[in-house]
Specification:
376 residues, alpha/beta, Rossmann fold, two-stranded parallel sheet, 9% strand
């Protein structure tokens, strides 16, 4: 593994994501280790008790979940002021939504938050793992209507007008993404971390070295729930349950508490895999385009390194092994045993029993927050 050069004194380390590359782990450890990092002169954004994602959405012009509206840019300006107010030798901030910044939003991100001492970290992961994880994540939230066999041809195709294509590649296209940032920053301030799929503990030591703090400074929150990936059987079950919910006009709260929280998060993601479960893999018919994308990404990393970008890890880690592909059954061929179905029904009923009496926070609260910031 290549050496990791820490950012210099006065540096601002900005973790750009992208989604599905371990950002939740990094963000959780930064928040939990805030006091320990402060002892080594490192300030963490967002400051305790505040959230960054509304500010980032206001920067990149994205709507809040539910599609109500984009937050006011005043939230971003307030976030930048909070960064400037931190009295620390170094600063670190992590938000996977940064990877979706384009055009003027990239310029503002670099100038407002990075400044002349900004260093930008982007994690590069195996393309098969990214695609399977992205499909699964939208599935868990009830946003994915397509089966894996229907979704993959879209993201592997050339039709950029498709929403699924744009949602995936806006943050995961290594060539286009680095081009957006290298228009404004020199290559030596771009740090690309190649994910090692065989080492789940890779990221935190890497960020410790980038920040120049002792090993073990970054710790995960105690009691943090971790969920495994879904199997193909489970994923298809969730997709079809959400589809039936749409047909029956379930409310958003019904889908959130009963399906996502009850069925997905509290049962499927924490239960043991069964012998009949089918692991998520890239179907064999997509082997050639996946191999070509991988070769292109490895070549791009080599070119970036020659230009002066810092590459952490080995580009060869992006290669997809033969067992990353398989002949997958169709949704109609997938089955679950009666005992497993009983467990799933019980988990959903238990979620209903524990369902909060108070409805989830109304999106209007974000509008009120924007108005308060704008009026301050």
């Amino acid at each position: 593994m290549s050496a990791v050069d820490p950012v210099p004194s006065g540096g601002r380390l900005i973790h750009l994501g992208p989604p599905k590359t371990g950002t939740t782990v990094v963000q959780g450890a930064l928040a939990a280790s805030r006091d320990s990092l402060a002892q080594h002169g490192v300030g963490v954004l967002p400051q305790e008790g505040t959230r960054a994602w509304e500010a980032t959405l206001s920067l990149i012009g994205k709507k809040l979940p539910g599609g109500a509206f984009a937050p006011d840019i005043a939230l971003w300006e307030d976030f930048v002021r909070s960064a400037d107010a931190l009295s620390a030798d170094k600063l670190v901030v992590s938000d996977e939504a940064f990877a979706k910044a384009t055009g003027d939003a990239v310029t503002r991100l670099i100038c407002d938050l990075g400044g002349p001492q900004g260093y930008f970290v982007y994690v590069v992961r195996r393309i098969d793992k990214l695609m399977l994880s992205a499909w699964q994540e939208t599935l868990k939230g009830g946003l994915q209507r397509r089966s894996l066999g229907e979704w993959l041809p879209i993201v592997l195709g050339d039709d950029r007008s498709k929403t699924a294509w744009r949602n995936f590649w806006q943050s995961q296209d290594l060539d286009e993404f680095t081009g957006r940032f290298l228009e404004h920053v020199p290559p030596d301030r771009l740090i690309l971390v190649v994910a090692d799929e065989g080492n789940s503990n890779q990221l935190l030591p890497t960020f410790e070295r980038l920040l120049g703090v002792p090993g073990g400074t970054l710790q995960l929150p105690k009691g943090k729930r971790t969920n495994r990936s879904l199997t193909l059987n489970e994923a298809e079950l969730v997709r079809q349950v959400f589809a039936r919910g749409r047909d029956a006009d379930w409310s958003k709260d019904d889908k959130w508490f009963l399906v996502r929280e009850g069925l997905v998060m509290n049962h499927l993601g924490r239960s043991e895999r069964r012998a009949e479960d089918v692991s998520l893999r890239i179907p064999n018919q997509h082997r050639d385009p996946i191999k070509q994308l991988t070769a292109d990404r490895i070549a791009k990393l080599g070119a970036l390194q020659r230009d002066g970008a810092q590459i952490v890890g080995e580009p060869s880690w992006l290669e997809v092994p033969d067992d990353g592909f398989a002949d997958l059954p169709t949704p109609e061929e997938l089955t679950l045993p009666v005992a497993a179905v009983a467990d799933l029904v019980a988990a959903t009923v238990e979620a209903a029993r524990r369902r909060p009496k108070v409805e989830r926070k109304d999106r209007d609260s974000f509008q009120r927050q924007s108005e308060r910031v704008r009026g301050s």
